[in-house]
Automatic annotation (TrEMBL), chain B:
This is AMP-binding enzyme. It comes from the Bacteria. InterPro entries: ANL_N_sf (IPR042099).
């Protein structure tokens, strides 16, 4: 069993507080993870500037080259981890063991992270809109069109309080090192694996270890990261996001409430889009904020819900090693049942129908974990309470709503796929400020173009554009 | 002030003597609280509902198990005067309240108990680090809590003067529950600012009480000013009030103080106390023992036992985990079998404290998720 220490600016620190990670299905001990207390984090942040100073000794292009090397190490290397080493297969097994994700999904998520690392030059080019990256290093510089530009880093490090649910979110912090800011990560309790492996790959690729801090720990550790870093991101539920509303130091990533909207001009052809809808709901076991949790249309909603239920309803829970496994387990005791209880309460409302009930019980309880099988719920009205819900498994409502009311009723939406050729409506969707990522046309909500900013541009968050003048 | 290396036989002999003293004390206290001339209205009324006569059927400590477990709500309802023993009816009475983290606070009456508790505690403090005559800083909860008066008395008892700050822990809990973390930080700063003003203006403050989080904040604030706990002249710290973990103690010793007492000159003693019990002392905490913290109640005035989660009359084995059960046995206040909101491991008697202790104290697992722990 691995012993994984806290990492304080690259230095291992074995805490007296240990969290034991067990395999969710077998109870097999996987690792002992040291837990950081809040005081340690606040204290360490006094030295945050050294991380940026260290990274600015390298050119951004050099860091990008190291990151590309790290991509290969992350995907294929056997890397140091705590008091042992970790092969890619170990990583997949360990991540699956604690998160409940099937192993093939863990493997596939490695590919996404690796892709982002390998393409960091293009990603930064897109995120900065083609800026000469030396301007970020120096803080100012002259563009070829003869205009002086200045971008000032707003913090020497980025702090991140990471979730346990979806390994894909790690792509959000990967550009930080080539932007010459240090990383201060508080891993999700069930998912310490990606941050540790990624940092290990970075260090093996030549990035100095003293620019990384990793603080597994409880809520106190998360609060300390957020309060002591001038720029930090957090992932959590609605209550968490609300708590940080208006706090310019914190970028809060909450539930996605991602949706597919079918325009009146295409809805009669709904069958053409069923596979796209199913993929958006089901892929990666519906765990991500980019998974669709609501399909909205003005008519045919009963048939759409029925067709989705036929496609997804029969899917069974399978062991994590099964290549066909499509569902992730709830590894926290009682969580699956608690989620199902909430859904059952909402199902009692008039106009709400569980279209998947005919395919057997949704809640599957096993000795040490539980599963929820895909659930499709039809709502006759947008006002039905369940139409505003999102859960961490393949769950979606199909909501009947006139097209001209959709924008005012869908609520905050991270990814919106609007299938329509109606240019006027498309313009209204483009103008809607409660939609973050917008796809006009038949694109699954889960297919991201990594060359686009995801959930807010990290450049805008970390750097301030300002005036900078020198005598002419 | 170290636990000596007494033999097992020595400890067993001391434990037997302590037990004999406890049995005698339990008998006397029950006689006192259930006699018409000395008892308080609450227990005299309760006596009528009991299926046994405490005056004839409680002969030793074990007989106290005949009482039903003490219910929290008895301390939340009715007139607090009901708790004043007849024998003390003419004495000045204090009311001390618990933090109120779970709604209506529990209240108890006190006449002199807090002074006695802290005078006993004073005997456990090493004079080298808690010099007699030194002034104290009290950086903890004020208002209707026992701590402010108790720490002030401790300080006065040792010949010093105590400087206090204002801290309302219930406001802290409200800020946390409503997610106003910026306000929480501001309030914490407000408290540490007051403390620094005292430390900067009064040069004989060598001892202090602080809750763990306020101690951390104070150290941070001092460091912002280019100083530190040792540089501010603090040599003795008595800390408690919230959950106190070995890791946190290690962090304090290694990083806030700069090493163990012999190196940094700063000695910290963790304590576990509450309004109902008084103050449980800790056996000395050392790096060699991985900063393990074991608490021992001020027996025979109060007894803590670690009992089974299923049967509160069943003590768990030494080293095993259970819920902390408290029995308070003073003439001012009698609390039989109060189940604390904490759990921990049962610790064996030691030479310094020859009775059961408890280590690893933390919120009872069934309550932990709903409890808000603030700066207090």
């Amino acid at each position: 069993m691995l012993n994984i220490p806290v990492m304080r600016w690259g230095e291992p620190y074995e805490s007296l507080e240990i969290d034991e990670v067990l395999h969710f299905a077998t109870g097999e001990p996987i690792a002992k993870v040291s837990q950081a207390n809040g005081g340690i984090i606040q204290r360490d942040m006094r030295k945050a500037q050294q991380a940026r100073d260290t990274l600015r000794q390298f050119k951004i292009s050099e860091l990008i080259a190291m990151i590309a090397k790290a991509a290969d190490l992350y995907e294929n290397g056997t890397l140091p981890l705590g008091d042992g080493v970790q092969s890619p297969d170990d990583f997949v097994h360990q991540q699956s063991a604690s998160t409940g994700l099937p192993e093939h999904m863990c493997r596939s998520n490695m590919g996404k992270n690796s892709f982002v690392l390998k393409n960091m030059d293009r990603i930064l080019d897109c995120l900065t809109r083609g800026l000469d990256l030396d301007i970020l290093t120096k803080g100012y510089g002259m563009e070829s069109r003869g205009v002086m530009l200045s971008y000032q880093a707003q913090a020497p490090v980025l702090g991140a309080v990471l979730p346990s649910n979806s390994p894909g979110v790690h792509t959000l912090w990967l550009p930080v090192i080539p932007l010459q800011l240090g990383l201060v990560l508080k891993p999700g309790p069930q998912e310490p694996w990606t941050p540790y492996r990624m940092i290990s790959a970075f260090i093996e690729a030549g990035i100095p270890r003293n620019v990384f801090s990793l603080y597994p720990g409880g809520p106190e550790a998360g609060a300390a990261v957020l309060s002591s870093c001038d720029r930090a991101m957090i992932f959590g539920g609605t209550a968490t996001v609300e708590q940080y509303k208006g706090n310019h130091k914190v970028q809060a990533h909450g539930p996605g409430f991602s949706k597919i909207l079918l325009g009146d001009d295409v809805v009669d052809d709904w069958e053409k889009y069923i596979d796209l809808m199913a993929e958006s709901i089901y892929i990666n076991s519906g765990r991500g904020c980019i998974n669709c949790s609501g399909v909205w249309a003005s008519r045919h909603t009963q048939e759409i819900a029925q067709a989705l239920a036929e496609k997804l309803g029969p899917i069974e829970a399978k062991p994590p090693q099964d290549e066909e496994a499509g569902l992730a387990a709830f590894t926290i005791s009682g969580m699956g049942k608690a989620v199902w209880n909430m859904i059952e309460t909402d199902l009692k409302e008039s106009g709400v129908t569980d279209m998947t009930s005919q395919y057997g019980d949704r809640l599957v309880e096993q000795e040490r974990c539980s599963y929820l099988r895909p659930t499709i719920v039809h709502c006759k009205r947008p006002e039905n309470a369940i139409a505003k819900k999102e859960y961490m498994y393949p769950f979606s409502t199909v909501v009947e709503c006139p097209q001209d009311q959709m924008l005012s009723k869908i609520g905050p939406t991270l990814v919106c796929t609007a299938i329509t050729d109606n240019q006027k409506w498309a313009q209204e969707l483009s103008d809607a400020t409660h939609i973050d990522r917008l796809n006009i046309g038949p694109i699954p909500t889960t297919r991201l173009n990594w060359l686009q900013p995801h959930e807010g541009s990290i450049i805008d968050f970390l750097f301030r554009s300002r005036a900078y003048q020198v005598p002419e | 002030m170290s636990v000596d290396s007494s033999s097992t036989a020595d400890i067993a002999a001391k434990a037997a003597a302590a037990r004999e003293r406890l049995d005698q004390h339990a008998y006397e206290i029950v006689q006192w609280h259930f006699h018409e001339s000395t008892g308080c209205p609450f227990w005299l009324q309760k006596k009528k509902e009991l299926k046994f006569d405490p005056l004839t059927e409680v002969k030793n400590y074990d007989d106290i198990k005949k009482f039903p477990n003490f219910e929290d709500d008895w301390l939340r309802e009715g007139s607090v005067r009901n708790w004043v023993p007849q024998a003390f009816a003419d004495k000045p009475v204090y009311v001390f309240e618990t933090g109120g983290t779970t709604g209506q606070p529990k209240r108890r009456i006190v006449i002199d108990d807090f002074r006695t508790d802290y005078e006993m505690f004073s005997e456990t403090l090493p004079d080298e680090y808690f010099p007699r005559g030194a002034n104290w800083l009290m950086l903890g909860p004020s208002g209707p809590r026992r701590l402010r008066l108790a720490v002030e008395h401790l300080c006065q008892h040792r010949g010093g003067i105590c400087f206090c700050i204002d801290l309302d822990p219930r406001w802290v809990v409200k800020l946390i529950k409503t997610g106003q973390m910026d306000q929480l930080e501001a309030y914490k700063k407000h408290c540490t600012d007051q403390a620094i003003t005292i430390l900067e203006s009064e040069n004989n403050v060598q001892c202090m009480f602080a809750t763990p989080k306020l101690l951390d904040s104070l150290a941070d604030a001092l460091e912002d000013k280019g100083s530190s706990i040792p540089q501010a002249g603090i040599t003795g710290i008595f800390s408690g009030g919230t959950e106190f973990t070995p890791q946190w103690t290690r962090y304090c010793v290694e990083e806030l103080f700069g090493g163990p007492p012999e190196k940094s000159g700063v000695y910290m003693t963790p304590t576990y106390g509450n309004t109902l019990m008084g103050l449980a002392c800790s056996s000395p905490v050392t790096a060699a023992d991985k900063y393990k913290i074991s608490y021992y109640a001020p027996q025979p005035r109060a007894v803590t036992e670690v009992v089974s989660f299923d049967d509160s009359n069943e003590k768990v084995g030494v080293g095993e985990t259970g819920r902390v059960k408290l029995t308070t046995l003073t003439k001012e206040f009698f609390v039989p079998g109060f189940l604390e909101r904490d759990e921990g491991e049962r610790e064996a008697a030691c030479a310094m404290y020859p009775w059961d202790g408890v280590s690893g104290v933390r919120p009872y697992h069934e309550f932990a998720s709903s409890t808000t722990v603030g700066v207090y």
